[in-house]
Specification:
With 401 residues, the chain is of the alpha+beta class. The chain has 10 helices and 21 strands.
């Protein structure tokens, strides 16, 4: 292994794990061992290195440079872990792949029992890359910017005191839309439509759609419906109230690290009892003084997500075969993810003959008889990983999905 963590093949991955969960530590160690066995080097974050016990992996500090030069960032945990890993993958332009140990896990690509198949596909470079839209967020007070940040899922303006409502004026493309007494408002991307915005009553938007969502939280108003606008629009929320004379014209933003590499942004000089707060992906927080303004627009830099071949075709691909007359599918369709994650009833669906699940199952049986590495074999090999769901530990903060 070289100094930057590269293996015999010259390839290197960054592993980010929720080491507070025993299952994540076990899966992380297994993943490192499997990658090293195929000549792929692994970097781990310094705060997680001891917990993972990965002597052969290169430990790197938690900075934006952690993923620079890596082929991929691997996240072992739930969506909160993946959102933390996205903070490192995005500036490095590295695709992100999650091994899901959480509950819903819309962002994660693989389950623990898929570990061996996932590594085989990564080793063979058998994956595609999706570009997921982000949002850039600017906070202004007294006419000047006091904070800038970004989000993959959502930026939410929320009240900081339980007993009080927020008084917000909502704006679209420089024009006022409505004034709400509310608990807050969520500005979401299509990726975030299944996260906080969904819990607030927003629509589910397919990831391929380019749009921005604005979803009020418990608004006391006759007109307070979720809205979907152009990706070129600029959305804004103004916190009603005059800024006091003690507020600085343009305070610098400071960042201080939190648990598990979390960064919390705060504005020096503002009270800890500010009436509103801005949260981005549930991880980055900015206090909002009265009279402040939050602007949300399409992000200049997307997050890249790695997608693996669908499980029914992975065994055929491992044997160098393709399905009869069809291409190897990349990832599970978003519709299927919705059905599985929410347990949606689909009994009675007929569809087109080639789309039926029964025929896919028959195809899988044919592939199994052909001697390929099957999903069943993988389950037996990685049963230790499946113990993740019996640990009962909570996901780390930040995963709304």
């Amino acid at each position: 292994m070289t100094a930057d963590g590269a293996g015999m093949t010259g390839r290197v991955m960054l592993l980010v794990a929720h080491t507070g969960r025993p299952a994540a530590r076990r899966v992380g160690r297994a993943l490192i061992a499997k990658l090293e066995a195929v000549g792929i080097g692994v970097r781990v974050l310094e705060p997680e290195a001891a917990e993972l016990g990965a002597d052969a992996a290169a430990a790197v500090p938690v900075t934006e440079a952690a993923a620079v030069g890596t082929e991929m960032v691997l996240a072992v945990g739930g969506d909160g872990t993946l959102l933390r890993a996205a903070e490192l993958a995005r500036p490095a332009r590295a695709p992100l792949l999650g091994v899901n140990l959480g509950h819903v896990g819309f962002l994660a690509e693989a389950e623990p029992e898929d570990l061996a198949v996932a590594v085989a596909n990564i080793a063979a470079r058998r994956y595609s890359v999706e570009r997921r839209m982000t949002v850039d967020v600017t906070v202004r007070a007294n006419g000047g910017p006091i904070a800038t940040t970004w989000a993959l899922n959502e930026a939410s303006v929320e009240k900081s005191a339980r007993e009080r409502m927020l008084d917000l004026v909502i704006e679209v493309d420089g024009r006022p839309l409505s004034r709400w007494g509310c608990d807050g408002v969520v500005f979401a991307t299509p990726t975030g439509s299944t996260a906080y915005a969904f819990s607030a009553g927003g629509p589910v938007v397919w990831p391929e759609v380019e749009a921005l969502l604005m979803v009020p939280i418990s608004a006391h108003a006759l007109f307070a419906r979720p809205m979907v606008v152009s990706p070129m629009s600029v959305l804004a929320a103004e916190v009603i109230g005059a800024a006091g004379s003690q507020q600085p014209a343009a305070a610098a933003v400071s960042s201080r690290p939190g648990p598990a590499g979390e960064s919390r942004q705060s504005v020096p000089g503002h009270s800890e009892t500010a009436g509103a707060v801005l949260w981005c992906d549930g991880r980055r927080m900015v206090e909002l003084p009265p009279g402040s303004r939050v602007e949300v627009r399409r992000g200049s830099l997307p997050v890249l997500l790695a997608r693996l071949p669908a499980a029914t075709d992975a065994a055929q691909a491992g044997a160098g075969q393709k399905g009869a007359g069809r291409e190897v599918r990349i990832g599970a369709p978003f519709t299927d993810r919705l059905v599985v994650k929410f347990g949606l009833p689909v009994a009675g669906w007929r569809g087109q003959p080639g789309d039926r699940v029964g025929e896919d199952a028959a195809d899988q049986g044919d592939a199994d008889q052909g001697g390929a590495t099957t999903t069943g074999d993988v389950i037996g090999e990685d049963m230790l990983a499946r113990e993740a769901f019996s640990d009962g530990a909570d996901e780390e903060p930040g995963g709304h999905a």
